[in-house]
């Protein structure tokens, strides 16, 4: 027994030690992180973000260096806060406040104390930083905008949130990420890959060499440059024309689906969202609920398309063989249907066949065509579905699938939609007759308008509109944008419609907008719209809408313009479309009076009406 | 009868493995940019290599001396050792706060490292004397005097760690038949000590009273006179608890209190006194299953653990060799201790057996206190890990201690009553 006690004590001790070792080394994994945090420092080398060019190689966005003053709270030695805050050009209270916040975030991890100093501020600070232990300067690159327009297309970058740091492993606190537009859409392409360097530190936090001879270190990879399909000159011109108006312009090159111009108005200077002023300006833009400058109206605003939609109604009617191009339909300032319903029309010659009916924008002709389409089928529901399928093939009633991060699907009703409205299927074509002329339940975004115009210009096909042309000078290969989409309408049926759109300029609703020497096809639209004022549905001045493409043969540009509450399609939208086409095709404006009219006319008064609190007149 | 000599190669093999593995870890812990080959004498690991080389010469010397010499001259060796300790008060050199060193030029010796072996020899000689009966109080006092005399000289140097080692002689004393009461008293005092620090004297006293009442009612011997014994023991226990409290609060300095508080988990101070323990725990804990690899420990390279090549050498093992390496090392030490006990038991000579138990006890208590400290189980006490920690005096002290026993064992067949 006495012999065994010593043995017993030795064995017990050994097992306790091994147990303790097992717990510390295998079970409790927190020591690993502690070891890494105090013995290895990780330094990131941020690459330049890729440049952004327009389709003609004009530089739109480059970079400027920016310097963040960072601090690691636990490494800060006592220092003269008053002197340091003076150097940083902030108040002493603000510095102390920032340091407290950093401490709460993490004593071990770096936090931004003063973000985004300019080069000059940095130069002044640089030499004096050494005195302040625990502080250092992290170089990053910020955007430098070479243009004052296209903000909604280009987007902006800002610091990642803490939630994003947790979710996306690539990003560390203080990193920048694309927030909207192409900056968001092509974040992975533009940002490049940051380099990382692991450094072994000793207990005084001095660097004593690279960790494991640098096997884990990587070099930064520069972000790729991208070329957009935008035409910067056209873009700038469009924004200028839209000054004082609200709405959107989308111009597409029909042969490729490339977006030549994507304008939303009102807009803002992209430089407002760079650097230290970003957060203040962003708040201002965000809370502007009247102008909504952050809303991309070209992509996100859904408008009733109005008369341009008649072109589609005509196409479907021809495809479904419910009318031919010769048949004339008479119209006497509108027509009556149902028991007491009447659709009005304006004064024009009668009867008209398809081509002049489109040129003169006869409501009666297309309402009757629509009715025949729906009634061709055994039920209204099936007729509605057939109509819907044709329109969907033009990219309407659903997301287009373009490469911009925001969008809206628009609305093209089908049979089921009306079955919900009128349970039991007891509805007929006349119930939905307004759809024929782009009112009723139909809603489209400007980019959808431009896209179907491009499809008409191409006589039956289109490429999905896209904004990216090249990455590092290599043309895009994404099949989504390089594969033709075919519409359900046969090629030959387009000719009478295109002739009608040509007639709009020759003898129709836009004959005063002809561009000398260019064969141009278009369609005006004047869309009724409503808003709610104090809970009451109130009609506002009609939206001025215009779609056009030119030249008639071998089209180079298809464009859609929507000017909110601009009244007649030819008044604002028609003029702007005409000027845009001239600018793009001829690069010079011959009709300076027209240009002057647009530049000098603003709709601010019209926009102020619903907020005036008084009753007001519309459509003046 | 011819003399035969059988060296215990298992012990020697364990010794070589420990010394070799120890040197590898010292190399890693002291590696720096100025390193210039394994035997660079300007470097810690280079000097340790020299110390190991010299210890081999020491081994040959020890083994070549007649075994009888150690028994016969035990008293002389012991007295010489005591004198060398006393001499420190006159000639001693102070290194890091402790006057424990004799200095010979650039070279220093720590006599307390050698006093352990001397005390073991003296105790073995005294207990194996035919006239000594350990069951008699008189002789127990004699044995305690031999053991605690060097400890008493060492404490005021101050070097409480080295003094603590003398508790190791409980191993041979118990083996040779001292009463188990001492063990009971010892462990009771330690329990009361720790509990007092943890929960305070009041609760400890209540617990003692409660325990006393329980034992009283369930006692087997119903004689009345025992009541006064219970009363006496309980009173002493409570008095001890209160005095511990008093000593802790009023006699101990803050740094001593901190050391206990950290182990008891009452305070977390990772920057000040707790820094060593905290960093050594981080280093060991970050080793994982298999460690970061020899010379690849980030904590070791960054010199986060102070004294890593001496008292905290085990943290290097933990970090670079992981759970696998460090538990194998623990097992190796256990093998050595058990081998020594086994060899001690096969001795015909009582002197050799007592000496063997002393060797096992001394090595074990170093192992216990050192690794316990590095793992954060024990308070911080500066005491080296045998054969592992850097230092010439330590290595030679342990080598002498172990190889005298190897010599005694090799001579066991020649022993005559």
From TrEMBL, chain A:
Assigned keywords, A-Z: Carboxypeptidase, Cell inner membrane, Cell membrane, Cell shape, Cell wall biogenesis/degradation, Hydrolase, Membrane, Peptidoglycan synthesis, Protease, Transmembrane, Transmembrane helix
Pfam families assigned to the protein according to its UniProt record, in alphabetical order: PBP_dimer (PF03717), Transpeptidase (PF00905)
Keyword Ligase recorded: no
Domain Penicillin-binding protein transpeptidase span(s) in chain numbering: 247-578
GO biological process, alphabetically ordered: cell wall organization; peptidoglycan biosynthetic process; proteolysis; regulation of cell shape
Membrane topology: Single-pass membrane protein
Entry's localization field: Cell membrane; Membrane
Domain Penicillin-binding protein dimerisation: 46-209
GO molecular function: penicillin binding; peptidoglycan L,D-transpeptidase activity; serine-type D-Ala-D-Ala carboxypeptidase activity
SUPFAM superfamilies referenced in this protein's UniProt entry, alphabetically: beta-lactamase/transpeptidase-like, Penicillin binding protein dimerisation domain
A cellular-component GO term for this protein: plasma membrane
Principal location: membrane
Record's protein name: Penicillin-binding protein 2
Origin species: Mesonia algae
TrEMBL record, chain B:
Coiled-coil intervals, chain numbering: none
Membrane topology (UniProt): Multi-pass membrane protein
Principal location listed in the UniProt entry: membrane
GO CC entries: cell division site; plasma membrane
Compartments it resides in: Membrane
Keywords of this entry: Cell shape, Membrane, Transmembrane, Transmembrane helix
InterPro entries listed in its UniProt record: FtsW/RodA (IPR001182)
GO molecular function: lipid-linked peptidoglycan transporter activity
Record field: transmembrane: 7-26, 46-65, 77-104, 136-156, 163-185, 191-217, 229-248, 321-342, 354-381, 387-406
GO BP terms: cell division; regulation of cell shape
Full protein name: Rod shape determining protein RodA
Species of provenance: Mesonia algae
Upper lineage: Bacteria, Pseudomonadati, Bacteroidota, Flavobacteriia, Flavobacteriales
């Amino acid at each position: 027994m006495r012999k065994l006690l010593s043995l017993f004590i030795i064995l017990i001790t050994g097992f306790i030690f091994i147990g303790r070792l097992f717990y510390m080394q295998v079970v409790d994994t927190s020591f690993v992180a502690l070891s890494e945090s105090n013995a290895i420092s990780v330094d990131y080398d941020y690459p330049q973000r890729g440049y952004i060019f327009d389709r003609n190689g004009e530089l739109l966005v480059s970079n400027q260096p920016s310097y963040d003053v960072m601090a690691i709270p636990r490494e800060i030695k006592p220092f003269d806060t008053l002197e340091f805050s003076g150097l940083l050009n902030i108040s002493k209270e603000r510095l102390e406040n920032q340091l407290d916040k950093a401490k709460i975030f993490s004593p071990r991890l770096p936090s931004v104390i003063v973000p985004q100093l300019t080069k000059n501020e940095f130069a002044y600070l640089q030499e004096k930083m050494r005195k302040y232990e625990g502080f250092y300067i992290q170089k990053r690159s910020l955007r430098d905008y070479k243009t004052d327009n296209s903000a909604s297309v280009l987007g902006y970058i800002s610091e990642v949130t803490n939630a994003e740091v947790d979710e996306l492993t690539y990003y560390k606190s203080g990193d920048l990420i694309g927030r909207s537009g192409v900056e968001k859409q092509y974040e992975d392409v533009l940002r490049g890959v940051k380099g990382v360097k692991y450094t072994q530190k000793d207990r005084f936090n001095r660097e004593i060499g690279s960790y494991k001879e640098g096997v884990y270190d990587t070099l930064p990879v520069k972000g790729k440059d991208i070329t957009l399909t935008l035409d910067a000159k056209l873009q700038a011109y469009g924004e200028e024309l839209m000054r004082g108006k609200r709405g959107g312009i989308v111009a597409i090159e029909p042969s490729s689906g490339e977006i030549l111009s994507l304008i939303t108005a009102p807009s803002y200077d992209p430089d407002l969202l760079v650097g230290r002023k970003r957060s203040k300006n962003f708040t201002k833009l965000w809370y502007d609920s009247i102008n909504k400058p952050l809303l991309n109206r070209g992509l996100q605003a859904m408008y009733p398309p109005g008369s341009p939609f008649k072109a589609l109604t005509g196409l479907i009617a021809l495809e479904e063989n419910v009318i031919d191009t010769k048949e004339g339909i008479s119209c006497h300032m509108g027509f009556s249907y149902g028991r007491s319903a009447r659709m009005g029309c304006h004064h024009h010659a009668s009867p008209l066949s398809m081509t002049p009916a489109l040129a003169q924008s006869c409501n009666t002709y297309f309402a009757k065509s629509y009715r025949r389409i729906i009634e061709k089928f055994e039920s209204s529901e099936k007729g509605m579905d057939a109509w819907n399928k044709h329109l969907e093939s033009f990219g309407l009633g659903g997301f287009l699938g373009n490469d911009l991060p925001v969008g809206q699907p628009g609305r093209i009703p089908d049979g089921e939609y009306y079955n919900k409205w009128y349970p039991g299927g007891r509805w007929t074509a006349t119930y939905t007759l307004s759809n024929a002329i782009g009112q009723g339940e139909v809603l489209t975004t400007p980019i959808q308008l431009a896209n179907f115009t491009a499809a008409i210009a191409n006589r039956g096909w289109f490429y999905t509109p896209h904004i990216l042309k090249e990455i590092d000078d290599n043309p895009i290969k994404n099949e989504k944008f390089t594969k033709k989409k075919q519409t359900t309408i046969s090629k030959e049926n387009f000719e009478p419609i295109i002739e009608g759109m040509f007639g709009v300029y020759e003898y129709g609703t836009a004959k005063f907008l002809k561009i000398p020497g260019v064969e141009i096809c278009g369609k005006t639209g004047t869309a009724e719209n409503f808003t709610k004022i104090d809970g009451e549905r109130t009609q506002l001045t009609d939206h001025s809408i215009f779609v056009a493409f030119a030249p008639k043969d071998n089209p180079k540009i298809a464009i859609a313009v929507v000017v909110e509450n601009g009244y007649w399609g030819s008044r604002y939208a028609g003029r702007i479309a005409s000027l845009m086409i001239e600018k793009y095709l001829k690069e010079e404006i011959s009709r300076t009076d027209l240009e002057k009219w647009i530049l000098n006319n603003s709709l601010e008064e019209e926009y102020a009406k619903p907020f005036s609190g008084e009753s007001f007149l519309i459509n003046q | 009868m011819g003399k035969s000599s059988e060296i215990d190669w298992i012990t020697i093999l364990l010794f070589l493995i420990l010394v070799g593995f120890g040197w590898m870890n010292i190399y890693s812990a002291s590696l720096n940019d100025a390193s210039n080959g394994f035997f660079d004498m300007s470097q810690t690991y280079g000097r340790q290599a020299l110390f190991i080389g010299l210890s081999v010469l020491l081994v040959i010397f020890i083994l070549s001396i007649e075994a009888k010499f150690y028994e016969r001259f035990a008293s002389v060796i012991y007295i010489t050792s005591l004198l060398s300790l006393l001499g420190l008060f006159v000639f001693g050199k102070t290194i890091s706060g402790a006057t424990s060193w004799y200095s010979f030029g650039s070279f220093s010796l720590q006599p307390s490292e050698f006093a352990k072996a001397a005390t073991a020899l003296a105790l073995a000689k005294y207990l194996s004397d035919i006239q000594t009966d350990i069951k008699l109080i008189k002789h127990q006092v004699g044995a305690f005097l031999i053991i605690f005399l060097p400890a008493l000289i060492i404490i005021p140097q101050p070097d409480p760690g080295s003094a603590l080692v003398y508790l190791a002689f409980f191993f041979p004393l118990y083996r040779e038949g001292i009463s188990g009461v001492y063990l009971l008293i010892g462990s009771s005092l330690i329990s009361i000590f720790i509990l007092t620090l943890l929960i305070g004297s009041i609760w400890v006293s209540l617990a003692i009273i409660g325990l006393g009442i329980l034992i009283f009612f369930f006692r087997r011997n119903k004689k009345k006179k025992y009541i006064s014994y219970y009363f006496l023991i309980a009173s002493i226990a409570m008095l001890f608890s209160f005095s511990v409290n008093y000593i802790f609060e009023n006699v101990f300095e803050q740094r001593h209190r901190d050391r206990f508080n950290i182990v008891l988990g009452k305070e977390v101070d990772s920057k000040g006194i707790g820094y060593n323990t905290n960093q050594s725990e981080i280093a060991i804990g970050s080793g994982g299953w298999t460690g970061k690899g020899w010379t690849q420990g980030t904590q070791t390279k960054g010199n986060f653990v102070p004294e890593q090549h001496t008292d905290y050498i085990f943290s290097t093992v933990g970090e670079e060799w992981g759970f696998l390496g460090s538990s194998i090392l623990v097992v190796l030490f256990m093998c050595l201790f058990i081998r020594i006990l086994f060899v001690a038991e096969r001795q015909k000579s009582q002197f050799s057996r007592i000496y063997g138990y002393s060797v096992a006890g001394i090595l074990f208590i170093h192992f216990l206190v050192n690794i316990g400290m590095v793992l954060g189980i024990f308070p911080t006490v500066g005491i080296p890990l045998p054969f592992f920690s850097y230092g010439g005096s330590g290595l030679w002290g342990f080598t002498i201690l172990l190889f005298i026993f190897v010599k005694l064992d090799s001579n066991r067949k020649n022993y005559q009553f």
